[in-house]
Design brief:
globular, alpha/beta, 34% helix, 8-stranded mixed beta sheet, 399 residues, binds flavin-adenine dinucleotide, D-Amino Acid Oxidase, Chain A, domain 2, 7-stranded mixed beta sheet, FAD/NAD(P)-binding domain
């Protein structure tokens, strides 16, 4: 049977980064990617946090724009503050570039291959997959496995220890239009990432919507945490599109490409590492519930999986999974759980969004601290952020 050191499932930002960084460490790496072309089918607003390209050593050529402002809108008002600047791109370019760089480091990326399952044997993990181009079922033996197949990963059928009772309830149905205006939209369009939080007039549900500008199009979309009919989702997005169009590209003809996908917005999985198998990115439940951001989290888990597989490669550890799980939990679990609780608290009384956004607008340092990496904050920064969080809680509880 064919064998490798690290077998990666999925070539999104998590799988692609794992493959690139593991191969760079000399770890023999094979990637299984369901799609025929890496990144071609990913539906995403593709906003990247400040510093992402530098942190992950990616070329600036993938960046479309560097919006330096983020605006947060509610039904009542719009609040804006400076940021980073952040970047926008497309997933074709992001995932495609990471995949190509992984290949250049020596990773073997196999497109049109569908992961089916795995079993553990005495001398490794046997992974079964379908080569959909050749129409054949194949197996490969690996020392370590990194599962990074995104929001479609239920995983309880792969290993009961990865089961997560809240998985289905945490799924957010997303629908997005790529809007291609025939002429440039209003100049402010290209300087701002817009996020909108409101209760739908159509369905009465909480909606998160966005407008992210790109070189040649605008990503205009929304997500609702429920299973809802396509027609209802379309009506919601058409209503939102009309409000953006009025403000930013009234009178400019445009064409639209539609895209739909699921995003996970619940709590992270309890277990993400067991007997050589690691779970990363969205498959691990690592998405910020307040913003839908998950690319950074995904890429970091890829890096941590590569580090753990690298330690196995040099014989320093026998099993990559415990080290990986510890590192990911330290990096993300505290923040993502707090963000999930915050989102539930805000959605219970949507007027609380205004309390938070007003405070962020008037205290830029607080906004800055919330965007940054918590592990890099000084003691004073943490105390300041804590005091601001207390202030918010006390004010919001009175709403
Ligand atoms: C509409 C929308 C907008 C978003 N906007 C943003 C944003 O602006 N910024 C941000 O940071 N995050 C955003 N996100 C979240 C972001 O898309 C995810 O957090 C990120 O893609 C997670 O990366 P990943 O590598 O874990 O998984 P994915 O990117 O989902 O990649 C998984 C890969 O696995 C492959 N795969 C799946 N099943 C199998 C299988 N059985 N066998 C083989 N391959 C398989 C898929 O084809 C895919 O290539 C958005 C999500 C959605 C849905």
């Amino acid at each position: 049977m064919e064998s490798t050191e690290l077998l990666v499932v999925g070539c999104g930002p998590a799988g692609g980064t794992a493959a690139r960084e593991a191969a760079r460490r000399g770890v023999a790496t094979v990637v299984l990617e369901r799609d025929p072309v890496v990144g071609a089918k990913r539906v995403c607003a593709a906003g990247l946090r400040p510093g992402f390209c530098e942190d992950f050593d990616l070329p600036r050529s993938i960046v479309h724009l560097d919006p330096a402002t983020i605006s947060l809108s509610t039904a009542k008002a719009t609040y804006a503050f400076a940021m980073g600047p952040a970047h926008t791109t497309t997933r074709e370019e992001l995932d495609g570039t990471i995949g190509a760089l992984a290949q250049a480091e020596g990773a073997d990326i196999r497109t049109s291959t569908l992961f089916r399952g795995l079993r553990r044997e005495r001398d490794g993990i046997v992974v079964e997959y379908a080569d959909t181009r050749a129409g054949e079922r194949k197996t490969i033996r690996a020392r370590s496995v990194f599962l990074a197949q995104g929001s479609t990963a239920r995983l309880d059928d792969v290993d009961a220890r990865f089961g997560h009772p809240g998985w289905s309830a945490g799924l957010i149905t997303c629908f997005q239009y790529r809007v291609y205006p025939e002429r440039a939209a209003a100049p402010e369009t290209y300087a701002t990432l817009e996020m909108h939080y409101y209760v739908s007039r159509i369905s009465g549900r909480n909606v998160i919507a966005w407008m992210f500008p790109k070189r040649d199009h605008l990503s205009i979309g929304l997500g609702i945490q429920a299973k809802i009919a396509g027609s209802e989702l379309r009506a919601e997005l058409d209503a939102f599109l009309a409000t953006v169009e009025r403000r930013l590209f009234a009178g400019i003809p445009y064409t639209v490409r539609e895209e739909g996908n699921l995003l996970y917005g619940g709590l992270p999985r309890e277990r993400i590492g067991a007997d050589g198998v690691m779970v990363g990115g969205t498959a691990a439940g690592l998405v910020d519930a307040t913003t839908g951001e998950g690319i950074h989290e995904a890429a970091v888990t890829g890096r941590l999986a590569a580090e753990a597989a690298g330690e196995v490669h040099v014989g320093r550890i026998a099993d990559a999974a415990p080290r990986y799980e510890r590192a990911v939990k330290n990096a993300f679990y505290g923040r993502l759980r707090r963000r999930q609780r915050l989102m539930t608290f805000l959605e219970r009384k949507p007027a609380r969004f205004d309390v938070l956004f007003r405070q962020l607008e008037t205290t830029p340092r607080f906004a800055q601290l919330l965007q940054g990496d918590r592990s890099k904050l000084s003691r004073w920064d943490r105390m300041y952020a804590y005091a601001q969080a207390m202030k918010f809680s006390l004010t919001a509880l009175r709403v």
